[in-house]
Each structure stands twice: as structure tokens, then as C-alpha cells.
């Protein structure tokens, strides 16, 4: 086997003695291969690019960067000069153009200084490079401040391609471009890579851009590799909790749910957490994550730095059957229904009335025992039992019922309703009082004053449903099952409750099962949707796929019946399509 064109091993960068920008990064890049490096701001992406072109050297940099067999860490100025532009070139995001020199002379500079071309030949070649980079050559005669941001991006690409380097590094290749132009430029870069045969490293926080451009992806977090592998796996089916959260926070037209940020903040590079650096923000963190650094190991067709091999399965219901008997009649409410919820994931369960949605909600919440099949929560079988360990496990999943008037006792005050789960758990008085206030305020209700003494009949439906939610999260569950939580609320209260629910899920790291017949609502909140019909799973898939391209008859009927405004031309078009209207 031939050696990789670029090989990075145990690369670390420390600035000022206490800022860890990179920590033990390693990867290899073959000839004509494309690699994306992604992550939040401050993850170490640009620092990595600067190391690959030799711009950061010891004592700040340690480890190895070998390009075509040549070591660049600690290399002499002459070696670095011979490598840059010819073997590796970089197009930086903040292009360092000289403001008093025409752009054409700056694009032509590598051709003159390293290629030995005369000024006139270098200028003609610069014009050709501009055309290849989709830039009008006439714009090169301008000064940098006379070009738009996107035009400067194209000029930096032309400069990077000047000497046909073996490796081209693009830092935020589509930054400053409108979506159509950005896509056109990325397609052009792909064509040029195929035609010229160079290897490509694209550094970006723009996940769709690099997913379109690169075959492999590396995810950096706090200067370390969190996940690495084929782009279709890493971006399409992320395994590391950080990658999963990063993908789910990105706005794209292929998803229908509202944006969900990553909880917490990226770590200060001066004080990176011990163990797994992502553990303070991770929904599945355990003691081992705080105490031990996870190795980067192969899992599911990619490398993942996680003690659990990636996202854990929070709950799995397998081949669940449930029947009810009335005299001689038997009603099969659930027939071989399976459902999986991963850590931090939100799953919608939809279906027409009588499809088995509420029965499934009660089974996975532990209110009902299945006739056959099993429910596994955090690796343990969920069963109805009065044993202490079984009760402790059942408190890890909480059910928010459809009717708050039915779920909340009229004899108890608001404070007593929210405090009751804490009373059962044996929390101290001071802890209970502060927890009641915190939980009420987290759902947008007053945590003090006369509101705490109010009773059910004195409150609105929206307030009651938020009290039911506060009561459910008071037990610090890991999974929340919400059964038609907005069906009795007006549109404004419904929107308010869903916003609260989404925020709680992020901040508390909750798994969520949202049960509803309203597909228009569910698609805005959930990652995946399971469609039930007559007690069976009719369809399952991403929220975008089920709501946008439903395969089953049950899903198509729900989507057709989903609420939508039809006004003006849309209403007329609908009537014309159906043959309605008046003459």
C-alpha cells in the first residue's frame, strides 16, 4: 500500500502556555481524497489548517504533520517555502489581501515568486484561474475593498489553485456567498478536484456545504476528534452525542422540526473539562465520562470517541402486545409494536383515534404492563412492581396526560401538586421548596406568592397543563411521554407549551415521546415519527420523510387532514383543482 499523501499524528497546539487549541489530533489523507473538518467556533478547525501549511511551529505545535513524506512540524524556512503553494495551498476565510495592491497582482504573486513566470504571463494565467473559479477576470483589476465578500472568496480560490498543489485547503469555502452562488462554487470545486486530481480539505461550520463536497468528515470538539468516518455516516447517521446535536441544530430544508440548540457552552480552551470534554453538555454523561478520557475507537463504520460507542438507546419497546377484554369481546389495542428512543431524541407517535397511541404511551411509561413483549429503559426491564428498585426505575419515565383536570387532584394546591413527587422521593424541606419554585418558573409560571396556594378550579387549561409538566419534571426523569398535551389548549397556549417543552428537553437532556393525532404539530417538535393504525406500526421514519413523503395510507390521511391556511390564490387554486367554485 502507498503511504498517505498527508499524515497527521498526535498533533497538539498550545498558545500562551495555557490555551489548548488542538489535543492529539490524527488522521490521514490519500491522494485525490476529500476531507471535511467541522465543529463549532473554537473547536480548532482553523488552527489545524494553519498547522498543515506550516504556519504554526514549535514551541506552540507538537506532534507530526507529514506531507508527501516531508515533516512540516519543526521544518526549516526553506523547506516550508518549497512546500507552500506547490504541494499545499490554503484559501483563508478572512483573505489577507493587501488593500493598496490590485487583486490581480496578488493572485499572480505565487506564479511569479514560485512559478518563475514573468509579470505579463502571470497576469494572463491569473485571468484563466479567475474564470475557473467563476470570477469575472475584469474584477481582478480592482482593489480588494472594491470586491464583494463572495468575489474575494473566489479570488482566494484562484490564488490557491495557481501552482496546481497536491492538497488544497478551503477555510469556509461558501462564506459570504448567497445559497445559489455558494452551491455553484462548491460544484465547481468538485469539478476542479476531479479534473486536476488534488486532495481537498474543507474546513467549515456549514454542514450541508461540506457534506456536498467531501467523502470523509472529521468532527472536532475542544481540539479533539470526536467522530471521523464517511460523510454519509457521520453527517447522515451521526453516532457521537456531539455530532448528533450539531447536525440537529443546523437549519436545512430537509427537516421540518424547529431548531434545537446544543445545551450549555463550548469549553474554555484554558480549562477543558477532564475526562470526555463534551460530558458537561452531554445527555448521556455518567461518572466514567467525567473521570476517564474516551479513546477514539471504531464503532458502526466510523471512529467515535465515546465510552458507549456513541448514542445510547434510552428506551426500546419490542413486539409489544396489549389487549383489553369486555365480556366476551377482545380488543387488540397493540399488536407487535416496536419503538426505540435514543438519548436526547424526540419521537412522535401519531395515528387516528383508536389506533393505540394512548395505550402505547401508558405501556412505555409503566402504567400498563404489556401482555407480550418488553420495555427496556436504560438497559433495565420496565415492570409494574412495588419493589424499591422497580419504583426508582419507573420514576425515570414520566407521563403527561391529555386531560390535566383528570391528572391533577382538586384537593391539592399548586405547590402540593408539584411537590408530591419530591415528597415520595424523600427530598428535604428546603430542597423541595426550591425545587418547586424552579420547576414552576421553568415552565413559565410564578414560583412564589398566592399562585402557590391556588387550586385546580381557579386556573386555566394552559396553566394546568404546564403544572402537570412541572410535576412530571420534578422527579428529574430521563424520558418524558406527553399524551396529547396540547389538545385542549388554544393556539397561543399550545405554542407556548411546545416552546417550553422543547427548551426543557434541551436543558434537561430529556428523551421525548410526543403522542398526538396532529401531524402538523408533531413534525415541528420531533426527530422521528411512528405512525400507528389499528394497533400496528403503519410507517416509521424521519419527521420530514413521514410528513413530506408519506408511504402508508394512515400517514397520507393524517397529512391531508393536517391544518393549513388556504387564503386568496391558494384557496382558489384548491377549488379549481377540485372542480369547485362558482360561475
Q: What features would you describe in this structure?
A:
This protein has 583 residues and is an alpha/beta fold. Among the domains are: 1-30 and 42-87 and 207-311, Rossmann fold, CATH 3.40.50; 313-396 and 477-561, Rossmann fold (3-Layer(aba) Sandwich), CATH 3.40.50. The protein contains 21 helices and 22 strands. The strands form four sheets. Strands 6-7-8-3-9-10-12-11 form an eight-stranded mixed β-sheet, sandwiched between helices. Helix 17 links the parallel strand 19 (479-483) and strand 20. The mean pLDDT is 89.
Structural topology:
Layout (H helix, E strand, L loop, with lengths): L5 E10 L3 E11 L4 E5 L6 H8 L8 E7 L2 E2 L5 H7 L4 E4 L11 H11 L5 H14 L16 H12 L6 E5 L7 H18 L2 E5 L3 H7 L2 E6 L2 E7 H4 L6 H8 L38 H5 L4 E4 L2 E4 L7 E14 L2 E14 L3 E5 L6 H8 L7 E6 L2 E2 L6 H7 L2 E4 L3 H4 L6 H12 L3 H14 L18 H14 L4 E5 L7 H18 L2 E6 L2 H4 L5 E6 L2 E7 H6 L4 H9 L7 H10 L5
Parallel strand pairs: 3-8, 3-9, 6-7, 7-8, 15-20, 15-21, 18-19, 19-20
Antiparallel strand pairs: 1-2, 1-4, 4-5, 9-10, 10-12, 11-12, 13-14, 13-16, 16-17, 21-22
Helix pairs in contact: 3-4, 3-5, 4-5, 14-15, 14-16, 15-16, 16-17
- Rg from C-alpha positions? 29 Å
Percentage of residues assigned to helices: 25-40%
Q: Under the CATH scheme, which class of the domain at 1-30 and 42-87 and 207-311?
A: Alpha Beta
The end-to-end distance, rounded to whole angstroms, is: 77 Å
Major sheet details:
8 strands, mixed
Approximate shape? elongated
Strand order of the largest sheet: 6-7-8-3-9-10-12-11
Strand content: 15-25%
CATH topology of the domain at 1-30 and 42-87 and 207-311: Rossmann fold
The count of strands amounts to: 22
The assigned structural class equals alpha/beta
Give the overall average pLDDT.
89
CATH homologous superfamily label of the domain at 1-30 and 42-87 and 207-311: P-loop containing nucleotide triphosphate hydrolases
Supply the number of helical segments: 21
Query: Low-confidence spans: pLDDT under 50, at least 5 residues?
Result: none
Known CATH architecture of the domain at 1-30 and 42-87 and 207-311: 3-Layer(aba) Sandwich
Amino acid at each position: 500500500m502507498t503511504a498517505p499523501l498527508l499524515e497527521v499524528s498526535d498533533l497538539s497546539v498550545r498558545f500562551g502556555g495555557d490555551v489548548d487549541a488542538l489535543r492529539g489530533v490524527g488522521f490521514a489523507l490519500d491522494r485525490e481524497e476529500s476531507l471535511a473538518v467541522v465543529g463549532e467556533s473554537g473547536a480548532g478547525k482553523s488552527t489545524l489548517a494553519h498547522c498543515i501549511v506550516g504556519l504554526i511551529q514549535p514551541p506552540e505545535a507538537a506532534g507530526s504533520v507529514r506531507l508527501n513524506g516531508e515533516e512540516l512540524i519543526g521544518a526549516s524556512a526553506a523547506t516550508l517555502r518549497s512546500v507552500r503553494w506547490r504541494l499545499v495551498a490554503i484559501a483563508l476565510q478572512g483573505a489577507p489581501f493587501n488593500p493598496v495592491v490590485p487583486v490581480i497582482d496578488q493572485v499572480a504573486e505565487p506564479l511569479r515568486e514560485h512559478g518563475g513566470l514573468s509579470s505579463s504571463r502571470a497576469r494572463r494565467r491569473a485571468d484563466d484561474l479567475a474564470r475557473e473559479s467563476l470570477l469575472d477576470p475584469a474584477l481582478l483589476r480592482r482593489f480588494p475593498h472594491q470586491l464583494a465578500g463572495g468575489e474575494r472568496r473566489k479570488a482566494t480560490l484562484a490564488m490557491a489553485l495557481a501552482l496546481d498543489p497536491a492538497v488544497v485547503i478551503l477555510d469556509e469555502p461558501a462564506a459570504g456567498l448567497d445559497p445559489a452562488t455558494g452551491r455553484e462554487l462548491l460544484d465547481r470545486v468538485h469539478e476542479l478536484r476531479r479534473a486536476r486530481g488534488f486532495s481537498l480539505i474543507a474546513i467549515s461550520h456549514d454542514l450541508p456545504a461540506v457534506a456536498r463536497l467531501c467523502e470523509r468528515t472529521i468532527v472536532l470538539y475542544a481540539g479533539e476528534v470526536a467522530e471521523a468516518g464517511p460523510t454519509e455516516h457521520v453527517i447522515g447517521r451521526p453516532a457521537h452525542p456531539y455530532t448528533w446535536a450539531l447536525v440537529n441544530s443546523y437549519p436545512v430544508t430537509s427537516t421540518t422540526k424547529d431548531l434545537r440548540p446544543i445545551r450549555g457552552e463550548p469549553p474554555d480552551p484554558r480549562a477543558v473539562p477532564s475526562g470526555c470534554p463534551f460530558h458537561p453538555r452531554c445527555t448521556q454523561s455518567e461518572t466514567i465520562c467525567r473521570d476517564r478520557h474516551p479513546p477514539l475507537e471504531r464503532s458502526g463504520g466510523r471512529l467515535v470517541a465515546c465510552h458507549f460507542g456513541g448514542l445510547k438507546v434510552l428506551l426500546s419497546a419490542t413486539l409489544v402486545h396489549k389487549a383489553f377484554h369486555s365480556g366476551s369481546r377482545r380488543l387488540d389495542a397493540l399488536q407487535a409494536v416496536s419503538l426505540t428512543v435514543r438519548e436526547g431524541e424526540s419521537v412522535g407517535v401519531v395515528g387516528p383515534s383508536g389506533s393505540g397511541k394512548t395505550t402505547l404511551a401508558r405501556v412505555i411509561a409503566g402504567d400498563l404492563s404489556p401482555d407480550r413483549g418488553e420495555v427496556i429503559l436504560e438497559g433495565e426491564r420496565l415492570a409494574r412492581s412495588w419493589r424499591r428498585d422497580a419504583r426508582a426505575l419507573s420514576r425515570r419515565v414520566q407521563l403527561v396526560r391529555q386531560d390535566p383536570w383528570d391528572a391533577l387532584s382538586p384537593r391539592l394546591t399548586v405547590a402540593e401538586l408539584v411537590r408530591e413527587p419530591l415528597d415520595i422521593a424523600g427530598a428535604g424541606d428546603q430542597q423541595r421548596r426550591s425545587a418547586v419554585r424552579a420547576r414552576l418558573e421553568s415552565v413559565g409560571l410564578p414560583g412564589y406568592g398566592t399562585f402557590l396556594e391556588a387550586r385546580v378550579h381557579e386556573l386555566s387549561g394552559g396553566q394546568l397543563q404546564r403544572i402537570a409538566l412541572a410535576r412530571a419534571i420534578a422527579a428529574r426523569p430521563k424520558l418524558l411521554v406527553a399524551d396529547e398535551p396540547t389538545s385542549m389548549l388554544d393556539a397561543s397556549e399550545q405554542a407556548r407549551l411546545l416552546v417550553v417543552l422543547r427548551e426543557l428537553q434541551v436543558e434537561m437532556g430529556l428523551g421525548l415521546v410526543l403522542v398526538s393525532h396532529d401531524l402538523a404539530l408533531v413534525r415541528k417538535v420531533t426527530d422521528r415519527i411512528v405512525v400507528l393504525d389499528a394497533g400496528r406500526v403503519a410507517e416509521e421514519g424521519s419527521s420530514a420523510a413521514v410528513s413530506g413523503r408519506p408511504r402508508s395510507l394512515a400517514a397520507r390521511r393524517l397529512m391531508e387532514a393536517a391544518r393549513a391556511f388556504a387564503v386568496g390564490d391558494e384557496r382558489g387554486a384548491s377549488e379549481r383543482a377540485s372542480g369547485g367554485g362558482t360561475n
